[in-house]
Design brief:
two-stranded antiparallel sheet; 8 helices
């Protein structure tokens, strides 16, 4: 029986990892090993030579999962080399609640980088995410925001892609697939895409910024107190903010998700080396 290791960066009890488990449970033996807490945006951070706590959790249906007090990449390493007796046939990371696309931003993703860690061990991998538009965020009767999203399409596309990889292996030159599925879709048919140039426009905000009250909220004064320097002087508190780009190239993952509104499957290769011969000529000139 095929062994399928599932991890994520949202945490072992996040709804997306449960959806991933449900999506592929008919394809083999599923093992879930994921961070105990949310680790979004940590990239490929590793807890080298540090103690990591590993404990059992129960998912919402009683399924036994393992939580790691480390990063998504840690979780894949612990799962593949410790929880399992042998390497899994495939690693799935996700389903992440949030988009993961573009050349310039994809290596910030804990979801994608956990998949890269699997590739480093010679294991084929799929990272999976859902792009949540405004329709996925709702308010309850008390005005509190919550996420209400149906993972059905993401589960279907992930299942079919995982099945293809398990049956046929990865295409030549492809190390992992990065899957993104829109929550508000017009077509269920996936498209094979390239990486967009950029996903996020980043900026810096401080307490004097126009939207300070909205972003920092009531916790800002508490934050100021926690950032006292040793000599009693205050350091400057800033926040990195971001907004999604609104312009994507045709054929890219961003265009597929935002404009065509259909699932995007991007084949990735970990070799980021450019043409060596051209650089040799440039260097020798």
């Amino acid at each position: 029986m095929k062994k399928i290791l599932i991890s994520n960066d949202d945490g072992v009890l996040a709804p997306g990892i449960f959806a991933a488990k449900e999506a592929v449970k008919d394809l083999g033996e599923v093992i879930v090993v994921a961070p105990q807490e949310n680790n979004s945006g940590v990239g490929r951070r590793l807890s080298m030579f540090k103690h990591i706590n590993l404990k059992k959790y129960e998912m919402e249906d009683g399924f036994e999962a393992y939580g790691v007090s480390g990063s998504p990449a840690d979780s894949v390493i612990v799962g593949a080399n410790y929880v399992l007796d042998e390497k899994p046939d495939i690693v799935i990371t996700g389903i992440n609640t949030g988009i993961n696309i573009s050349k310039n931003d994809i290596t910030s993703s804990g979801t994608v980088c956990a998949a890269l860690e699997a590739v480093a061990m010679g294991i084929p991998a799929i990272s999976a995410s859902v792009f949540l538009d405004y329709s996925a965020f709702k308010q309850d009767e008390n005005g509190e925001w919550y996420m209400d999203h149906d993972f059905s399409l993401a589960k279907k596309v992930l299942h079919d892609l995982c099945e293809k990889v398990l049956e046929n292996g990865m295409p030549e030159g492809v190390d992992l697939f990065n899957l993104n599925v829109p929550s508000d879709y017009e077509s269920e048919e996936p498209m094979i895409t390239t990486l967009s140039n950029r996903m996020l426009v980043k900026d810096i905000m401080d307490e004097n910024s126009e939207d300070e009250n909205h972003i920092f909220s009531f916790a800002f004064e508490d934050d100021k107190k926690s950032f006292q320097l040793e000599d009693g002087e205050e350091g400057q508190i800033v926040m990195i903010t971001s907004a999604l780009c609104d312009d994507y190239e045709k054929g890219s993952d961003g265009y597929c998700l935002m404009v065509d509104k259909r699932p995007s499957i991007t084949p990735l290769n970990v070799d980021m080396t450019r043409d060596v011969s051209s650089v040799e000529r440039w260097y020798e000139d």
